[in-house]
Amino acid sequence: MVAQGLPPASPPRGEQEIFPAWIRERKDFQVFFPRFSDIVITDDEILRQGVPKDPGDRNIVELQCLARWIMKIPSMATSLDLSQATEIAKLARYQALKPREYVFHKGDKGDACYLVFSGEVHVLIDDQKVATVGKNSAFGDIALQIENATRGADVQAGTGANVPVNTSVSTAPANNASTATSTPTQLPSAPAIGVEVLKIMAEDYHKTLARCQTRRRKHLINWLHTEVLLFRDCVESKLHYFELVSLDVPLKQGEILYRQGDSIGAFYVVRSGKVRLEVDIQYEHKHRWPVGKHEWKEQVHAAKSRVPFALEERAGFFGFEMFVEGQQTRAYTVIADSPTVELVGLNRVDCFSPYFSFTPRAIERILEKHDKCRELATKQIHQKLKDFRRFTSAQKKAFNTTVEKEAPVSVKAKFNHSKETPQFQFPSLQPAKWEAPNDVVRALQLACQ
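^ Cyclic nucleotide-binding domain-containing protein, sequence as received from the core. Prediction below:
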């Protein structure tokens, strides 16, 4: 009997070994077995349990955790997205090598890439160590880029790795597992492990990418036809051509796709996220001074800034300057405005290819969008300049009200409410408005040089 009001007792060690980590962390499992509700399974524990399994035995939680781990490896993250990494995790095979055991030799056929899960490997050339590859890194990935590439060096497992190994089992009877304490029994010592790796075959890698690309094509064609207003009038053959020549452009928040004034490159459709359109604006400060009785010199100080005027979200399009007659450069700056942005781009040459052309109705929509953006940008520029002139005018008025029409420099008592005389105080100097002919001001300027 369990006393009411007391926290659930931690489950015996034997039960933790019976139930795998992925099921212990499920909420529906913890409802029926509340003694596991206070156990938090970390990603490292899930990886440690899932990586050594055969690819077909890994459950969905282990695959997702393994995919996130693969995306942390720089060489994998540059060529895969999370869905592709999940497919790769279904095919990666575990290998544990003994200390100083060779992974491959120089001249061997490069048919696989290796991800270091724990430990390290040494790269050897002529039996001399030239590099060390540690945990959460990849080696041999040239096999994924060049077909039938040969290994350029020997790779040898390190001297040892901190790999946790279960050295005890519970001897408590199964029917009394919840109450009896487990008696550890020492197992034979496990062989030393120099490095643990996940092996990704090049053939499996390319087949996986091909399957993902095929799914992407089907989804892209359907998405363009149903959600993007610009392509609703296109026939299926043109959509297929667009999909074949289109480019996927991923962006992170704050990244600039192109700037105002750049050469026109591609036409873009927003697949996910949102981008911000900004236009350049120039503020001018004018300063003049006399150089004679009736002569002045003037200098203009210009400061440039960008002003946002529109957002393009999912299924929106931009980069349509190529369709505007006489437009040779980008009219706006485009910046990613969400944590992740996915764009689909179509090069300028492909936009006017004989195999693909926008319908007349689509061209009208593009020009309407251009006119709308130009109107919004112009309105925003005028408003910002109006605010700037108002601010400058207010500054001048504020300065004019504080100065007095006296000598160029006036002496004012520092403490107005004090009975002290100015002779015993430091003078407080302030400028005053003073009018004089230009030739006098010019003479004073020359005298001060």
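The longest helix spans residues 360-402.
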